[in-house]
Amino acid sequence: MNSSNGGSKVAPGSRRKSVPGSSRTLGASSPLSTRHPGAAILGSKSAASDLSRLDLGRGDLGAARAVIMDAAQVASVPTEPIEGQKTGTSGLRKKAKVFSSGNYLANWVQSLFNALGDEVKGQSIVLGGDGRWFNKEAAQIIIKIAAANGLKKVYVGQDAVLATPAASAIIRKRGLYGGLIMSASHNPGGPEEDWGIKFNYNSGEPAPEKITDQIYEETKTISEILTCPDMPDIDLSAVGEVQYGDTFSVEVISSVDDYLELLEEVFDFDMLRKFLSSPKFSFVFDALHAVTGAYAEPIFVEALGGSKDSLKNCVPKEDFGGGHPDPNLTYAKELVALMFDEGGKYDFGAASDGDGDRNMILGKDFFITPSDSVAMIAANAQECIPYFKDGLKGVARSMPTSGALDLVAAKLGVPFFETPTGWKFFGNLMDAGKCSVCGEESFGTGGDHVREKDGIWAVLAWLSILAKKNEGATDLVTVKDIAVQHWNEYGRNYFCRYDYEGCDSDSANKMMEHLRTTVIPSATEGSKMGSFTVAKADDFEYTDPIDGSVASKQGIRIVFSDGSRIIFRLSGTGSSGATIRLYIEQYEDDKSKMLLDAQEALKPIIETALEVSKLKEFTGREKPTVIT
User: Fold this and answer.
1) pLDDT of residue 64
2) DSSP code, position 232
3) Domains, the chain, ranges and CATH?
4) Catalytic: which of 111, 183, 185, 310?
């Protein structure tokens, strides 16, 4: 591939033709052409060779000074394919020590640029992550490879911190080609834990399969890495722009500003500010020492006037404080203890995960399942959230998520879509103008303001519902009040998920094969499983109504005549082993049974699910790792 913009065009995914081990300085027509013979801070006569020592200042970008550097020299570094770099919906995830060793990260990043081919040359991207260990070092590696591969500009979140929904917002607002997000989502962080990276495309959505499949193909044949090894590391703590030659630059930007501006367009911040200042309402937000800790004070305190005392674990840490940044009843123990304390003072509690795209909503002594959360947000969106004042275009949920949203869609008379798990499926619907609100039972909820699930958006949506329902109210309308009112109107979909984490992959696959080859064929309409009558059983397949693509083997589902469901899936969000997810759902419309304990209500169908799957026999597991 010709390295200059004026060179011959090569189709996306084609190979470069430089000589491994060679180096060159790109010329005047190149993205890295020399602009000045020295490197100097504008307005200063002193040269600067080490960007880590430069003080570009903090605050508004308009006040930040620019830095102009010599053009970077491109080197071709020989490498070899590394097995196991198959990229999925959530990117590539492995142990941090794997990513931080040798050429593991560099191979994947170069394979990404190889897969994108000429299409990415001269383009701008954003880069950031969830603050976990290795992110800052990885950012420097990525920037140098991006420069060598002909990108025009890399925007980087300050300190390499950028929540996933914020990255999507930046891509959309600034019209960027895409972005790289360094995160293993809700998985633990640290040198002995997990690390991950994914590419989001130009609508801010996770990369489609045509890109992720091509990345994987490139990882199997890669022979060189193009990089700029002599380029000084960027000072990621200082907001400002560094220019290399004529047309490549790196700009460190606020991690918060673009995202906050978007949220202010979606929600009524005046209404929220008034509600949060009410003496009758108290809330708590737990960032689990993850990325939303960087957003909590600017949004909840500075913009909305909440108390700083309401923020818990809001200092991002590279190892998430030794915790598991997964906002559920098992791992968000501190928040759960506060909200279920008999004498607790908080009326509303919320948490978000490692990269800020998941959420958990709690009332006083009350848990809102993610399946109920998306349904309740959709039911109240037009009344409570200005962004949806003209109504919803449509709603969507992942197949394992309960049918609560289906009932709302039917009553509102809006289109409803059931998709496989993976936010990219929602993104297609949103880009086509067919979906406004969507969600997954795995604590992911969002709207079409971005193309990712959005934890803080979900929290603000719930606060907006509470604020609107409390206008003119004498007594506080609580989370529980809103939920019970909803169930009395729509009925309740009792729902539970069992996660069996870190299972032996072979054993997990054998169990799924047993379900496919033995259970499904025998689960004919009218047949019995325990006390339940089968309506249908299949391996869920989805044909995308927008692009016609087909996603098969998306989960074993058994649907019973009363609407109850059993679903089995293998999850690909971990870095090792397999996670078996068992989903159980049962619908209840008897108003006297709206407040049963979910485990008690679901006990018969749970027993049936474990019996027909032979989960214990295949995996040796006596009980799940996590119950949601």
Assistant:
1) 45
2) P
3) 52-255 (3.40.120.10), 259-490 (3.40.120.10), 492-627 (3.30.310.50)
4) 185
